Amino acid sequence: MREHYFLTMLQSLSCDSIDKYTQTMICLETTVLCHLLNNASRQLTHTDFTSI
Question: Sorted alphabetically, which keywords does the UniProt record give (predicted)?
Fold first, then answer.
């Protein structure tokens, strides 16, 4: 899964080696990714009674 690979790469970054702007952008992108993944998992597990 590409999302898992992306998050693994983020965890391996050294915060000392990147500037504040890049840290902010990575944090923003990670927040958006987690939000999208959370919504996708809700849609997959949500049961709509009209579809039964």
Answer: Endonuclease, Hydrolase, Nuclease
Domain ranges of the chain: 17-51
For the chain, what's the residue count?
Answer: 52
User: How far apart (Å, rounded) are the C-alpha atoms in residues 35 and 51?
Assistant: 25
Report the C-alpha gap between 1 and 26 in whole angstroms.
19
CA dist list (Å): 35 to 5, 8, 20, 39: 17, 17, 22, 6
Average pLDDT over residues 30-40: 80
Q: What is the pLDDT confidence band of residue 47, given thresholds at 50, 70 and 90?
A: low
